[in-house]
Amino acid sequence: QVQLVESGGGSVQAGGSLTLSCLVTGTFNGVSMAWFRQAPGKEREGVAAIFTRGGSTYYAASARGRFTISHDNLKNTLHLQMNSLKPEDSGIYYCSVSDTIGIASINIRDYRNWGQGTQVTVSS
How far apart (Å, rounded) are the C-alpha atoms in residues 2 and 17? Predict the structure, then answer.
């Protein structure tokens, strides 16, 4: 059983930055970790993923060049550095881990463990 606790969300103006963190505890064999977000009335979508064995990453087109995903192996914490934030980045951000894939994937069907999420609000 794996537990995920996200933190670091908040309210910022467009152009600002936030860093999200996700503490992962429990027993799992997952090597792919990812961030997703969900805006009101929209489906949850993948933002960024990292394959912890090697560090390869994958970003959604909307995040590429602005967001950076990283993983602290010692602290078992996943981070998402978000720069140049836009109002369309607003939503609840969730982290997840997968033990069924061997690549950095943002396909939601690869993930089944979720935390409570952290709210990000970007005002124009």
Answer: 29
